[in-house]
Specification:
heterodimer; A: about 260 residues; alpha/beta; Rossmann fold; 2 domains; six-stranded mixed sheet; four-stranded antiparallel sheet; globular; B: about 260 residues
Chain lengths: ~260, ~260
């Protein structure tokens, strides 16, 4: 599904490479969780896959097709196949739930229709269905600013789903939520992805969460992959490799050893 | 221990700055003949002028009112034309939307030129181009407002949170869709605010445009003043104050309706 070859990127005015020589092959239907400290390159990797960043070198294939260095017109098509979920939700705060989720249909809507704010009946059906699915039915005309954090992330999930994506990238989707909401939102995301056969790649900070919601875990440190395997295979040495030595392991969550 | 030599200039820094301020004020005041004695000497004349203004002369009230309404119409049309031109251009003058530097700088230069020339000066220019009346006034207001709103709109667009826009980008939307569905909703309240502010501003500007023959109540004001009809001048001034107040209240009301203000504490 996603194949990454020798991907390297360095931000302007920085000496270190944000990601260096990443090689990955993510298969359809997998639930991959990236772990690693802040600044380890997880977000950069997400942005490269979604073409928000043009990496310095390397190749990314989605469904066997190379996605880098392609014309702008195709970029939209590539992005539409990938739903993205952000830590800070990134919704239009003053607009309604319906408007925000409708934005997920933009890739299937003509420019002229967008300018006049027209969407097809079918689009409205998809959008309302997705709002119901994330448990936000009845909130269609509420403003985002009036919602709680968990509700906002549900709306963001509905927006991503409305793209009809093959892949969902969730960049720290629950990092600004309380533990109960973290579980609720992750359950929702995981279940929908399993039902729809969507490949889910997320990054999580709590290791017990990461284990629970992944079929495969990838540990990143300083832009390099330090661990790649099944959640059960992660041992103490791997964790030291990923995060460095610390006495405060309890803060990372239950490790299971 | 290193002994630091104190720079004498540094030691007397505050004294020197103080001296400089005194010198600047002396220079400016002496150049403009501003003095308390002049003011006191002028007081009886001021009192005389003001007393001659009472009571306000209402014989021509109807004409003044219709001219005041014409001023308001000028402000509405001028502001609207300016806002309508500035709106699309402002996206071309925002660095985050327009990566092409030549277009960006070109649009910004146009805004600066339009804004740099005062409404009155635009009035003079358009009166000599299309003749007397409210139409050159409208053009003058539109020209200045295009420059002013264009700049404010562009700057509002540049301050949009890029993370929120990235979310729209990531859905696969094209550039126009991103602007329409992502950037525009974020800047809408600011656009409304600035446009209403310029409606108020333009009403005030329109009252003076009459002085150069570009329509509106200013024309009546200058006529009455030249004919020493002080009582009519007062009537006109009262009308102006009332209308500015009404417009201020009206736009405050609209803003409250459109922009959801969250009260702090």
């Amino acid at each position: 599904m996603i194949k990454i070859r020798n991907l390297t990127h360095r931000y302007k005015n920085r000496n270190e490479e944000a990601i260096s020589n990443i090689n990955l092959h993510i298969k359809k239907g997998e639930s991959v969780v990236l772990i690693g400290s802040s600044g380890s390159g997880k977000s950069t990797l997400f942005k490269c896959i979604n073409r928000l960043i043009e990496p310095d070198s390397g190749k990314i294939y989605i469904d066997g097709k190379e996605i880098l260095n392609c014309p702008i017109k195709k970029t939209g098509k590539i992005r539409s196949n990938i739903g993205m979920i952000f830590q800070q939700f990134n919704l239009l705060e003053r607009e309604t739930v319906l408007t925000n989720v409708l934005n997920g249909r933009l890739c299937h809507t003509s420019t002229i229709k967008t300018v006049f704010g027209r969407f097809l009946k079918e689009d409205y059906e998809i959008v309302r269905n997705n709002i119901r699915r994330v448990g936000m039915a009845g909130y269609e005309h509420e403003r985002i600013a009036d919602l709680s954090g968990g509700q906002k992330q549900r709306v963001a999930i509905a927006r991503a789903l409305s793209q009809n994506p093959k892949i969902i990238l969730a960049d720290e989707p629950v990092s600004s939520l309380d533990p109960k909401l973290m579980k609720e939102v992750m359950d929702l995301l995981k279940n929908i992805c399993v039902e729809e056969g969507i490949t889910l790649v997320s990054s999580l900070h709590f290791l017990d969460f990461a284990k629970r919601y992944s079929t495969r875990m990838i540990g990143i440190r300083d832009g390099k992959i330090m661990f790649d395997g099944k959640p059960g295979e992660l041992n103490e040495k791997n964790i030291v490799d990923i995060y460095g030595k610390t006495k405060d392991w309890y803060m990372y969550g239950k490790l299971g050893f | 221990m290193k002994s630091k030599k104190i720079n004498p200039l540094k030691k007397y820094k505050h004294f020197l700055i103080g001296m400089l301020i005194v010198v600047i004020y002396y220079w400016a005041i002496s150049g403009t003949n501003t003095s308390p004695t002049n003011f006191v000497q002028g007081l009886p004349f001021m009192a005389d002028f003001v007393s001659r203004m009472f009571p306000p002369d209402l014989t021509n009230l109807g004409r003044f009112m219709s001219k005041a309404i014409e001023t308001l119409q000028m402000a509405i049309v001028g502001s609207s034309i300016g806002a309508l031109i500035a709106f699309p251009l402002s996206f071309l003058g925002a660095r985050n939307v327009m990566p092409n530097k030549i277009i960006y700088h070109g649009v910004r230069t146009i805004f600066d030129a339009l804004r740099g020339i005062n409404e009155i000066v635009w009035g003079l220019i358009f009166v000599s181009m299309v003749g007397l009346g409210p139409f050159p006034g409208v053009l003058a207001l539109a020209a200045h407002v295009t420059g002013a709103l264009g700049r404010y709109f562009s700057e509002a667009i540049e301050t949009v949170n890029p993370e929120v826009i990235k979310a729209i980008v990531s859905t696969g939307a094209n550039k126009i869709q991103i602007v329409v569905r992502g950037i525009f909703p974020e800047v809408k309240p600011l656009f409304v605010n600035y446009s209403l502010y310029y409606l108020e501003n333009n009403f005030r500007a329109a009252t003076v445009l009459g002085l150069v023959g570009a329509g509106g109540i200013g024309m009546e004001l200058i006529t009455s003043m030249r004919l020493f009809k002080s009582r009519e001048v007062l009537t006109i001034l009262i009308i102006m104050i009332l209308m500015v107040t009404i417009i201020d209240r009206f736009s405050a009301y609209i803003r409250k309706k459109i922009v959801n203000v969250e009260i702090i504490a």
